[in-house]
Amino acid sequence: MSANDRIREQVTSNPVVLYMKGSPAFPQCGFSGAAVQMLKACGVDRFQSVDVLADPEIRQGIKEYSNWPTIPQLYVNGEFVGGADIMREMYQSGELQKMLETAKA
Amino acid sequence: MTTPEAIQGYIAGGLPCAHLEVEGDGQHFRAVIVSEKFAGLSRVRQHQLVYQVLGDRMREEIHALSLETWTPEAWAAKAGAARG
Fold first, then answer.
1. Other Cβ atoms within 10 Å of B19 Cβ, number
2. Distance of CA A81 to the CA centre of its chain
3. Between 3.40.630.30, 1.20.1540.10, 3.30.300.90, 1.10.10.10, what CATH number should domain B4-83 receive?
4. pLDDT at B84
5. A59-83 per-position pLDDT tens digit
6. Cα dihedral B50→B5→B70→A11 (10° resolution)
7. CATH T-level topology, domain A3-101
8. What is the rounded distance in angstroms from the CA atom of residue B46 to the CA atom of residue B29?
9. What's the rounded Cα separation, in Å, for the pair A78 and A27?
10. Cβ–Cβ contact A34 with B under 8 A
C-alpha cells in the first residue's frame, strides 16, 4: 500500500487522528506535546496517534497528503483540521471543542 | 543560521503584506502576517499560502515557524477591540 493509501485509511477509519513526533505519553517535540494536551483538554482521551518519527514514509507522505509541511497535523472525521497554531486558535475560540464533540462517540 | 529578518524578506517577497512581524531565535520563529490575500480563505488555506511562498525553505532552513494570519479587516477589528 502506498503512503497515501495508508494515510487515507488511517484518517477515514478513525474519527480523530493526530500525526505527531513521538507518542502522546512521550512527545518528541513541543508542538506535538501541545497538540496532545489540547485534545485532552477537549475531553478526547482516546484518539489515534501516529508517530511520524517511527515511519519515514508516513513522515514524508503526510506532508504531501495535506499539502502541509509541518507536524503535528490533526484530522477529524477524515478532514485535515490544521497544525498546532490552528488548533490553538480554534481551542481558544471554542471551535475545536465543538468540532471534537461530533467525533467523540 | 536563518534570521527573523531573512524570513521576513522571504514572506514579503512573495506575499503583499499590510503588516508583518517575525521574531525568533534561529530555530523557532513566530510570524504575524496581515494580508488582503487571506480574504475569504480558511485558516488552513491562509497558512498554505504562506508555506507556498516559503517553499523548500520550510523543509531545509526553517525548523519551526508559528503562524498567525489575519485579513486587514480582522486585524483592524482586533486592534480596535484591544483599544477597547
1. 12
2. 8
3. 3.30.300.90
4. 66
5. 999 999 999 999 999 999 999 999 9
6. 40
7. Glutaredoxin (3.40.30)
8. 17
9. 23
10. no
Nearest to B43 among A31, A82, A84 (CB): A82
* Pairing mode, strands B64-70 and B28-34: parallel
Whose grid coordinates read 543560521? B1
Using the structure block, give the residue that is written with the C-alpha cell 485579513. B71
Residue B7 CA to residue A105 CA, distance in Å, equals 42
Give the start-to-end residue ranges of the domains of chain B.
4-83
Amino acid making up residue B5: E
List CB contacts (< 8 A) between B43 and chain A: 82, 86, 89-90
Q: What is the DSSP string of chain B?
A: ---HHHHHHHHHHHS--SEEEEEE-SSEEEEEEE-GGGTT--HHHHHHHHHHHHTTHHHHT-SEEEEEEE-HHHHHHHHHHHH-
* Chain segment B26-81, per-residue pLDDT in tens: 889 999 999 999 999 999 999 999 999 999 998 888 888 999 999 999 999 988 88
